[in-house]
Amino acid sequence: MTQTAVPADANDAGQALWQSCTELLAQELPEQQFITWIKPLQATVSDDFSKLTLVVVNRFKLDWIRAQYAARISALLNQLYGQPIQLDFALMAKAPAAKVLPVRGPTDSEEFTGVLAASSNDTVLNGFKNRLNSSLCFDNLVEGTANRMARAAAMHVANVPGQLYNPLFIYGGVGLGKTHLMHAVGNQLLQNKPDAKVLYIHAEQFVSDVVKAYQRKTFDEFKQHYHSLDLLLIDDVQFFANKDRTQEEFFNAFEALLAKKSHIVMTSDTYPKGLADIHERLVSRFDSGLTVAIEPPELEMRVAILINKSRSEGAEMPEEVAFFVAKNVRSNVRELEGALRKILAYSRFNQKEVSIQLARDALRDLLSIQNRQISVENIQKTVADYYKIKVADMYSKKRPASIARPRQIAMYLAKELTQKSLPEIGELFGGRDHTTVLHAVRKISAERQTVSELNQQLHVLEQTLKG
Ligand code: ADP
Ligand code: MG
Known about the structure:
single chain; 467 residues; alpha/beta; GMP Synthetase, Chain A, domain 3; Rossmann fold; Helicase, Ruva Protein, domain 3; 5-stranded parallel β-sheet; 3-stranded mixed β-sheet; 10 strands; 55% helix; 9% strand; binds adenosine-5'-diphosphate; binds magnesium ion
C-alpha cells in the first residue's frame, strides 16, 4: 500500500484528487465523451476523505454518468488515493439557465458533433474550417525507425504538395501516430502557405457529411467544398467499408483533387489491399501513390517519447524511469501517454518526485495484468536493450568488454532473479561452462558493493524486470 501525503487543506486536497482523476479520464475517454460528461462535473470531498460527491446538472446526466462511468471513476479514485473512497452523486441545487438541449439518446452523433465542433480550435479561413489541431506538429512527433519512412514522406508532402507521393497512404495499428502525422502535414503546409485550403476529416465525418448532403439535397455545395481543397487529409478510411454512396462520392472527390494536383493523405488500420468491403477501383486508387506503414515504436523511441512528453507537461522524467516504463508499456504511443499521465497525476497528487517506485505504484494495475514471470530470455533482452547491444551477443563468443560485461551482468541477474542453476544458465548463454557463469556472478556481486554506478544500473534493471 502506498503512503498517501495529502495537501494540508482537505478541500484543496479533494480538488487535487478530482483534478488528477479527470486528467486520467481525459486520456482514457474519447474527447467528446469527456467534454460532454466528465468535464462539467463538480466534486466535493468529505473532510475525512471517505466520500467524494459529484454534482450533476440534471437527472438524465446523473443516471447516465452513474451507469457509464461510476465504476471507472471509483477505481481511479481508489488507485490515486490508495484507499477506497465512496462515490456519490447529487443533483445541482438550481439548474443553470443554460440552453436546453433536446432530449436525445447520448449516442446521438449530431449532439456529439456539435459539442466537438464548438470546442475544437479550428482556424476559420474565409468561413472555411480546416479542423486541424495546431498542437499536433512535426516538432513534437518523435522520430524513430518505426515511423521514419512515413514521417519523411509526410514532411515531403507538406513542403512540396501536389507532386510526389500522391496520394500518400499511411497505415498502422492504433495509437501509433497516424492522426498526429496527418495534422502535422496540414499544419506545416499552412505555415508555408497560409492561404491553402486544407481539410482534416475523419472518414466517419465524411460519411455523415455525405448522408447530410443526400438528405438535404445539397450535393452541389458538398462537391464544391471538397473539390476546391488543396490538401485533403482523410483519417481511418477503413470506415468507408460497406458505405457505397460514400465511396462513390469519395471516388469523385479523389479524382477531382488529383486532376488539379491537390494532395490527398489517407490513413487506415491496414494496407489498401487489406481493406475489406471497399470497391476495388477505390482500393487501386489508394495504392497508386505511396503506401507506407507505421510500426509500433521500438524501445529507444518509446523512451524518447516519454521524456519529450513529460517535458512538454512541465515535468522531468529521469531516463531510468522512462526506461522502466518503456520496457513495460510496449504496444503503442497512446498507451505510453496513458501511463505517463497516470504517473504525473500520481506524482502531483502525492507530492512525490517521479521515480521508479512511484511509476510502479502508479501503474500497478497495468503491471499486475502483465504478471510477468522473469525468464532468462527476458533478462537477456532487457539487459541488451539497456546497454544497447544485440540480444544475439548474449549467446555469441564475442569478447570485447562492451559486450562481455553486459553479458556478465545478465548472467548475474539470471542467477539472482530466476530459479535456474549455474549449468542451466550457462546453457542459455550460448552453451557456456557453469564456471564462467559462477565467475560472472561473483565478479558482478563484488563490484556492486563498491561501484555505485553499477549498483544503480543493476537497480534499474531489477526494477524493470520485476515490473
Ligand atoms: P493513431 O491515429 O495511429 O491511432 P494518434 O496519432 O492518435 O495515433 O497517436 C496517439 C497519441 O500518441 C497521440 O497523442 C500522439 O500525439 C501520440 N504519438 C504518436 N506517435 C508519436 C510520436 N512518434 N511522437 C510523439 N507522440 C506520438
Ligand atoms: Mg487516428
